[in-house]
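quick one before i forget lol
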Amino acid sequence: MSACVPAGATESAHIERAHPPHSPPPGRRRRFRVAGADLSAAVAVFLIALPLSLGIALATGAPLQAGLVAAAVGGLVAGRLGGSPLQVSGPAAGLTVVTADLIHQYGWRTTCAITVLAGVAQLGLGCLRVARAALAVSPAIVHGMLTGIGVTIAVAQAHIVLGGEPQSSVPDNLRALPAQLARLDTAALAVSVLTLAVLLLWPRLPGRAGHLLRRMPAALVAVTGATAVAAAAGLVLPVVDLPSWHSHALAGLPDGPVLGLVAAVLTTTLVCSVQSLLGATAVDKLAAARPGAGHVVRSDLDRELLGQGAANLVSGTLGGLPVAGVAVRSTANVHAGAVSRNSTIIHGALVVAAALLLVPLLELIPLAALAALVMAVGLRMVSLHHIRTVTRHREVLVYAVTALGVISLGVLEGVALGIAVAVGVALHRLTRTRITHEEENGVHHVHVRGQLTFLAVPRLSRALHLVPQGADVVVSLNGSFMDHAAYETLQDWQSTHTARGGTVEITGRRTGVRIAEPGELATEPAHGGESGTSGDCRCRPWTAWRNHQCERPSPAPDIAAGPDGTPGADEGDRGTDPASSAPARGRTPSGRQLVRGLSTFQRRTAPLVRGELARLAREGQQPSQLFLTCADSRVVTSMITSSGPGDLFVVRNVGNLVPPPGVESGDDSVAAAIEYAVDVLAVRSITVCGHSGCGAMQALLGSRPGSPAVTPLGRWLRHGGPSLERLRDPGAPAPRLAGRAPADDVERLCLTNVVQQLEHLRAHEAVARALEEGSLELHGVYFHVGEAQAYLLAEQEGARVFDRVREVDLVV
């Protein structure tokens, strides 16, 4: 019989039993230590969480103490058990509409029971390790859901801001708004306007004094200021009412129709889980982007789901609101410098202390101030950035349907509509194929844009039969997929047309040299070798831009289907010259190779990138990072970083060296590039990339100490001297590769050189200033050419380690 435990618990228990040499003696307790950064971050998050928890409880119609219970449980339980150490959990604005609807339908005690059952469901999902399945939800659906919830919150709280009571739905609130304006409460409106003004202006305070004042959370300052002004002016307003904890309502037995309760549990589970898991991935990005972040441990999403389930189980049992990861508090936690889960736990303990000791002060807060605070949070959930993003990705329909569905029908109904529309849009894109036929200068052109599936076969056949017998034809395939039905249709037509004296040329992004059955290309001989030998051409996925030639004699140009049914690689891209025999690699005359590459670019690549390059020409370059690497021809920056035009500002030199400023015979070229990138282009990161088998490092190892440098290359390599000294210094910790030791002294020097050049970078005035301001971060990368493996420099247990960049690290 096995129990469901968080990942890593078994290993931890095993390590504790083993008593490693550096652990405390078995009979001695380890002292609990809290980093200063965690303590200050906990205070900052607590000051934000306290007013927001009360405001969200007010917006849902729950007892105000329920917000404090959820905040405390989210900090203590989810903070201790969750898989995202820096994420802060508590009552979330995204759950406001769901909870308010549940309270309206079933009452408070049954809502608590639904929260308990949702926690049990989350625990079950965490045990099944399906957390990453939640990330399959389209971002347009998530952003649309949050927008709909934000609009619902803002419209409802507008009634309290005006001195009235909100209705149960957005349409009802909108219909009641004119009557509410007619009986406006000026005192409540004045307190609300003051709260909103402070929320808006506080983060924009100028000068040094403003920089110090902005450390206080705007939410706390706004609510405190509005409370003080209301008390000083003697305004009579509804205020926070926290009844005695002795009369606090706890969870009761579920009461209502079974199907309705099941739907309520599923809705609560879905919203809590998706918001928490997406929040955990966002916190990972924020933590990794912090200056000097070093090695950042990614969130364990299955463990995070278990932690959230336990928190909802406890919160519902104790009469608290549903718990989820909260973006505002998590962002504040990361920006405040938190380094471990201790900050989240301490913030939860501070909420408990406030709920027990600060009740008299909390009961002075006007409800209008809390309503204005929650209304501002709701309006911020309608993100213009997200709207622009979904518009750019052509998913605005999914976003709009989800948002309108949430506003008019409810969260579960709105999300279901969004999913249905997203599936419809995906099917439409998959089946949308545009096929045209035209004649130009006696040559017939058939253009196919989109995926070529069996649904498009009738239109493809109709266009092909418009071509007269014996005519010259160019078939342009601009898609990434061709299924079996389309493949056979095109193959049969091509064979028939060429047999009757016509010619067929297949062009497109991934066309090849002949029609072959799917899977045949994996075994066919290449370069004159036998089937399956090492001479086979394995470079098909990146033939469009590789620099060497995979040559083979070719018959008339046809198409080839890859193993997955997609069109194969284009022989024109591969560089075969039908007029000559296939030369061996490295023997192609450089002039012909240059002309061939330029010709391929103009025919294949230029039409695809012309629009983007025209935009870059109009707007100017705005790269996000400076990439400093070696001039070695095997290091292709666009390949190893998956970047395109305008992404990188690249500086290449022999040995990827960064001469420190002020040295004798310094190099102004590299320094000028650094200054221009940081001060003019405002790049956000600088990467120094070394590589295996570096000739400059080999030359450094073979040089004699103190020998005069008489050649330009020798004078340049003197800038690598500090790296060589660092390597030979027995007291300097040597950087290492994760998983294995460096192969030899050359690789050891290549790794050491990356670390040393990062030190040189910090000595440049522009870099030092940007690092101090927090607007720049430095990265070290080592690229092993033979392994095609990138290693990223990170801090692990005080040592500099180059760790592998794995595919799992890129999943967000």
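fyi The two ends are 34 Å apart (CA to CA).
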